[in-house]
Write a structure and sequence with these properties.
This protein is an alpha+beta fold and 264 residues long. It has helices at residues 8-19, 21-25, 42-45, 47-57, 70-79, 94-105, 125-136, 144-147, 202-216, 232-239, and strands spanning 30-31, 38-39, 59-66, 82-93, 114-115, 154-160, 166-173, 185-193, 222-227, 244-256. Strand 1 and strand 2 form a beta hairpin. InterPro entries: Acyl_CoA_acyltransferase, GNAT_dom.
């Protein structure tokens, strides 16, 4: 399975999402959460289809759902022996993100660190290194196809140290199709920093570089990132790029009952 990486379950889900990509981008209510199938409009997508996919695949994504709807979503999933974990949503428009990221990026990288060229092949040693780095730092990785931007506009930022070892990564892409009100919204995430390189501000820098590229290169209208309510360091990192909490929105991952949280 070229370009797939992770556990057997993760790779199987990546394959399902990749095979269904054209369908996802042409189906009202569907969106592309990256690792599996998903929706940004459950009513348009259809609850019978949602339950069928969760039970078949074991995981399903909900993106930019109204916070007021989360209780009802949880109830419908529980009635079908499924559950869901939710994340908070942080959002920035072009103006706010441009000002904030310029301030971060203009300070430059710490001495001894540099940006790597972006990966543009789905399956080679450089891509495997990026995916393994994410997995080692608790992030369920995307397929190489998605990280390389081979199925749509995307950016994968990587920072390495003096020994050419990865120190930090981040990724962004466009999950929403032409039928969605969020069509020009980019998603940013998969941010990871090696424990041996923490305390240098690399997370803030790699995130800012990723956010900046979404607006300068891909002409996004907005960008959003997800963070657990208890993850204060990630909140501060995201806020440094100009994003602010949107209390009206949530994102989640539905799982078959008994499955552990899919990613941190």
């Amino acid at each position: 399975m070229a370009g797939f990486f992770g556990t057997a379950q993760q790779m199987a889900l990546q394959a399902v999402a990749e095979d269904a990509h054209e369908w996802t981008m042409s189906t009202p209510g569907a969106c592309d959460p990256g690792r599996f199938l998903g929706t940004d409009n459950p009513d348009a997508f259809g609850w019978d289809t949602i339950i069928e996919i969760v039970k078949r695949d074991g995981a399903f994504g909900f993106r930019l759902i109204q916070a007021a709807d989360t209780a009802e979503i949880s109830r419908k999933l529980q009635e079908n022996e499924c559950r869901i974990d939710f994340w908070d949503v942080y959002v920035a428009n072009r103006k706010d993100a441009t000002v904030a990221t310029l301030e971060v990026i203009s300070l430059g990288l710490p001495k001894g660190y540099s940006y790597r060229p972006e990966p543009h092949q789905a399956a080679n040693q450089k891509m495997l290194e990026v995916q393994a780095f994410m997995a080692e730092n608790g992030i369920a990785p995307f397929s190489g196809t998605k990280l390389a931007g081979l199925d749509g506009p995307a950016v994968t930022i990587t920072i390495e140290d003096e020994s050419n070892s990865l120190a930090a990564v981040a990724h962004a892409y466009f999950p929403h199709n032409k039928y969605s009100r969020y069509n020009r919204w980019a998603w940013g995430g998969l941010v990871a920093v090696s424990p041996s390189h923490r305390g240098m501000g690399l997370g803030k820098i790699v995130n800012a570089k990723m956010v900046s590229e979404c607006f300068s290169r891909f002409d996004a209208d907005f960008i959003y990132e997800l963070v657990a309510a208890s993850n204060i360091p990630s909140r501060k990192m995201i806020e440094a790029s100009g994003l602010a909490l949107d209390p009206m929105a949530k994102c989640g991952i539905a799982m078959s009952s008994g499955e552990e949280r899919f990613t941190k």
